[in-house]
């Protein structure tokens, strides 16, 4: 096997990349990663320098892995600032570090994609060995693999990486006929709360509409980006993504885009951009011009649930964190990240930290489960 790193995903033909990654996950698509690079949303200047890993056998591409050289920890959603501060306090360098992740996208998915017919464990072992050797020779402190699927996290753990646990809240479609069918599974108090929140949208004179990617107009894209920027400006920060990124995905992957628009007096007041996979809806970016009661819940949650039911999608991943999603029918799921730390003493300390976190994980799980709003315990997520 021959391993190469490329700082430009455009050096890999899109059909070769997508043949290995498959079509189910929109964020692994060549078009999505290319848009991040071409729009300069990820580059050395923003602290995300692409170094995608490619594995060849007999000059044929057999495995790919998104890989970035990171110079900070922003936009990752698995928080390691404490680790970086510990390195700094001991006069060691934590950055740069290797990161296998989809930039600014805390969605679970495959992280090491291997062509069918090849030994996945052996190739993964070779990749880890390569990254370790490269890190030691180029003063890279560590490698972090964020939001892998559970089976891939288990494999990485078997190869010596420390596995960190987290939580997200996803909605699961248990073959509901319509939104009212879903509501019927909830306890009366929570069912009434959601009905009241949705009713309040109409009482404020707000109309909701859904626009598929091909039909999104240029003016709507400009409105959306204005709202998207406001979400960050309200927190005194700058947006991660440029307008050029959204322009490019609108051209290259419109079939996987869904725009939820809230209008008042025929003018947009809020928007949410979602992505569709084969069986999952992903809520990603949102923003609003004015504050309206319940508008975030309607735009970012209820419209997505409606869409999943109407289009027979199994899961709605509405974004990271958000315990308030539980009472609205979202179920806690465990997320994973895998970590290799080069320096032995720091590696031991971080491993102990991760193990301590795991001790609290089951406690939080029981707490979250106790807050589920269902009359009966829902089917286990798959």
Radius of gyration over all CA atoms, rounded: 21 Å
Q: Which range best describes the helical content: under 10%, 10-25%, 25-40%, 40-55%, 55-70% or over 70%?
A: 25-40%
CATH class of the largest domain: Alpha Beta
Query: How much β-strand is present in the residues?
Result: 25-35%
Predict the CATH topology of the largest domain: Aminopeptidase
Number of strands: 15
End-to-end separation in angstroms reads 34 Å
Task: Give the CA-based shape.
Answer: globular
Structural class: alpha+beta
CATH architect. name of the largest domain: 3-Layer(aba) Sandwich
Oligomer: single chain
Helical element count?
11
Across the major sheet, the strand order is 2-5-6-8-15-9-14-13-12-11-10
- Strand count, sense and closure of the main sheet? 11 strands, mixed
| CATH homologous superfamily label of the largest domain | Gcn5-related N-acetyltransferase (GNAT)
Structure description:
By secondary structure, the chain is of the alpha+beta class. Helix content is 38%, strand content 25%. The protein has an eleven-stranded mixed β-sheet with strand order 2-5-6-8-15-9-14-13-12-11-10, with helices on both faces. Strands 1-3-4-7 form a four-stranded antiparallel β-sheet, with helices on both faces. The two termini are 34 Å apart.
At a glance:
The protein is of the alpha+beta class and about 375 residues long. The protein contains eleven helices and 15 strands.
